[in-house]
Amino acid sequence: MIGKKSATSNEQSKKSPERKxxxxxxxxxxxxxxxxxxxxxxxxxxxPNNPNVPTVTKEIHEKDPNPQKPSxxxxxxxxxxxxxxxxxxxxLENKIKSRKRILESxxxxxxxxxxxxxxxxxxxxxxxxxxxxxxxxxxxxxxxYKKNKDKEKDAQLQAEKQKxxxxxxxxxxxxxxxYIAIDKHRNEIQKMDEEKSRAExxxxxxxxxxxxxxxxxxxxxxxxxxxxADVKKLSxxxxxxxxxxxxxxxKIEKQNTDYEEMNVKYYExxxxxxxxxxxxxxxxxxxxxxxxxxxxxxMLSDELRKLHIIYDDIQGFCSFSEEQLEKALEHIPNDxxxxxxxxxxxxxxSKKKKIEIPxxxxxxxxxxxxxxxxxxxxxxxxxxxxxxxxxxxxxxLNGTNDLLKKLKSEHMSSIESxxxxxxxxxxxxxxxxxxxxxLRSENTKKDSKIAAMTHKLNGIEEKRTxxxxxxxxxxxxxxxxxxxxxxxxxxxAQQKAIINDRNGHIINLEKQSAxxxxxxxxxxxxxxxxxxxxIKVKKTLTLLQKSINDANSERGNSPTKKAEKIEKLxxxxxxxxxxxxxxxxxxxxxxxxxxDKKGSGLSPDTSMQEIGAEKFTKSSGDVxxxxxxxxxxxxxxxxxxxxxxxxSPGDIQRMLKKLKQDLKSYxxxxxxxxxxxxxxxxxxxxxxxxxxxxxxxxTAISRIVKA
Length: 707
Known about the structure:
Blueprint: H1 2-15, H2 23-31, H3 41-46, H4 52-61, H5 75-109, H6 115-331, H7 337-356, H8 364-477, H9 482-553, H10 558-600, H11 606-640, H12 649-662, E1 668-670, H13 671-677, E2 691-693, H14 694-706
Antiparallel strand pairs: 1-2
Helix pairs in contact: 5-6, 6-7, 6-8, 6-9, 8-9, 10-11, 11-12, 12-14
């Protein structure tokens, strides 16, 4: 409340100097004595800094201590000034009294003060007393100032009287000088007429030169238009070159893809050809074995024939003996012992017959011979198949070689055409540079002419300004020559208008020439830019040739490049693993902060924070699972990369250990998430469990890699 009241009192104190006081209120206030009054805390802060009081002191102290006496003409003005200062001091007193009344009304409205406020008010009362003392001193100074001013005014009156006498003497002297000046002025007018005639002659010459400049300007405009058209043509040619380069790049990319496919087919055919050589060697061995076996089989077949003859004789004898025994047994009685012996012999003959005539009497050599014949037939069929497959591969290789020759010839022809066009462009650029140099030399000559003309015009303008100054001086002193001077002024004004128009026209010409110079500079810069673009095109062509040579050289050293690619992939994986670890640390720190917030329990909306924490943990879990899936996919990508001969199972074990280190922060994995995000883990052995540990996942990955 006290602050608000003090603010209102400040506003009233600011508005009080603008307010006009009534004479009745002034009379009432003049009766009251000036005594120190207790003021509020906020009021006295602004009272010593009142801008009205120091302004009075400044006005008093800034007066000249030794003023000159005023003249008779300024006497009434000085009296009026002294009266104004007295009224100003009275206004100050009335303002102070009105503010005291405002303070009294505020004291009645305010509440009883505390001890601190009383102390502050007493301190501010002392400040007000000091200000009252300063006001008394100012009044005394004002009285002394008035007395000094009266004395100064008397001295100034006497000095002004002496000045009037001196001025009358000067007047008589000036009149004598005036007649002399009139004669001089007439002579100068005659000189001005002569200069005017000269200026008119110069104007005519200037007009002729301006017309010449216009004609030259039109010719330059035409030349600039031609230059702009040439630049447009150059831009179109460069655009066509860009299109040609793009087409060449596309063709080269297609050729590279064709080269890669042909390289793959070439390597496959080489592998097959090496296999064919091995097969041919083995076939030759088998043919030798077959020939040896045939010779042996022929030898054995002769022996077998002999054995078959002997076997047939023995078999006939056995059958004959059996028939004879049966006949003998029919005639011999059953009780006889000879019958038993004959029956026993019959059984023995029958046994020998069964043993000696099995189908399995074929020798092992016949079995081996049949097996060898089957193998020979198989290998002959394979040789025929390989020969049939080798023929189209040879045809494809011949076709690719023909294509390469055609593409090389086309590429060389395109390069030759490009070099020819570049040479023509260079010749055109040289001619264009020469034209630009000629234009610049002409521009410099014309600029020098314009500078000389402007220098002449500046000299004429300087002379005109001098004559105007002389005319202005004679106007004040000459009354009789006013008519002639007015006529001369009108003539000069007309000449000024004409010359100003011509100056404006010359300035416009200068601006236009500056614009043309700037456009020429811009065109020159564009020309150099396009020249640099042409150089870049040359560089790209050389780079393309290098890339073609590199592609041809890369056929031999492809395994080394594969190893370099594997190293690059490992480096990228290491960098991305570091980024993943940084993200993990950020997620962990956020989780710790959330736990701390949960444990503190300071905020009332704990339920909302818990919901936000759960959402954050879910989102962090999703992020972690996606990061794990990315690392596993990268591992499979490295394992799926074509291996070099130097790699071993130990390298795969080291890679698995590294993957385990990367996935240390994960304890349990969701099988569905892994199967959705990692395509190589979509196998049946993971479907048995909903979740899987880190060790189980590593074993599964090692199985997939080994498979």
